[in-house]
Amino acid sequence: MIRSLYTASSGILSGQRQVDNVAHNLANINTMGFKANRLDFKDLFYVNLQQNKNLDLENRRSNPGIQIGQGVMPSSITKKLTQGPIITTSNPLDLAIEGQGFFGVEVDGQLLLTRHGNFHLDENGLLVNSDGYPVIGQFNGSLINYREISIDQDGVITGINLQGEREELGVIFLFNVPNPYGLSAEGDNLFSVTENSGDANLIQSKIRQGALEGSNVDLAEQIAFLMMSQRALEASAKLVQATDEMMSQANNLRR
After folding, report:
1. Longest CA span, the chain
2. Tens digits of per-residue pLDDT, 95-145?
3. Could you tell me which of 114, 36, 115 has the C-alpha nearest to residue 78?
4. Where does the Flagellar basal body rod protein N-terminal domain lie (predicted)?
């Protein structure tokens, strides 16, 4: 009966982790560029209570003996990297990626990747993200003295100079890694490369100006996960209660 308490507690803790994960996803349903998390589970090691010695029987369908499982535990959290909805903003420095790839920003000399293209010009005319980190690309200098800045689908930036002529000002780089699921989430919609993700490489993908990629959180899917988690929590709690009652009755029998 003590084992059933440990098994039920593993269900309660795992259910709580799922609720926490759903809450995180739902809290970011309006966060531009956010990618939903999915929590995966695995069953724990089994205990052999009885070993069946007749292992050489033909056409046997039963397990070799009696094995009792010990519950469940979270095994991993993976990012759902599907494309989010493209939302038009009409801000010329808002950019969205259609397809694969990430924008690159430089944070303390390190390359970090993001799908959140909410960019603007700082006081020096450099293209930066909402936190002030410079966007990685090849630029011909400050953009502050140019108007009607245009960014085509290949990331090429042009603008009208003081003489009224349209001039090419640079290009925004896009990156991808061999295994995007191996990226490490750093918060603020930023990801860092890891050994599992592989190194970031330049790629060609389509950029849309005046738009942002919305969150890919599926509300109906998250509500379904929440309902399943709540039922699992209730079932595990009832199992704890039933085990406690059985232990109480067993103690009374000894009296």
Report:
1. 100
2. 999 999 999 999 999 999 999 999 999 999 999 999 999 999 999 988 988
3. 36
4. 5-35
- Give the chain's domain count: 2
Domain identity same for 93 and 183: yes
Instruction: Assess whether 193 and 151 both reside in one domain.
Output: yes
Q: What percent of the chain has pLDDT over 70?
A: 92
Plot region of 24 (φ>0 → left; ψ -120 to 50 → alpha; else → beta): alpha
Query: CA nearest 129: which of 142, 137, 118, 113?
Result: 118
- Give the Å distances, CA to CA, from 208 to 66, 197, 250: 60, 26, 69
Structural tokens at position 229: 């988690």
Q: In Å, what is the CA distance from 223 to each residue of 19, 35, 137? A: 10, 17, 40
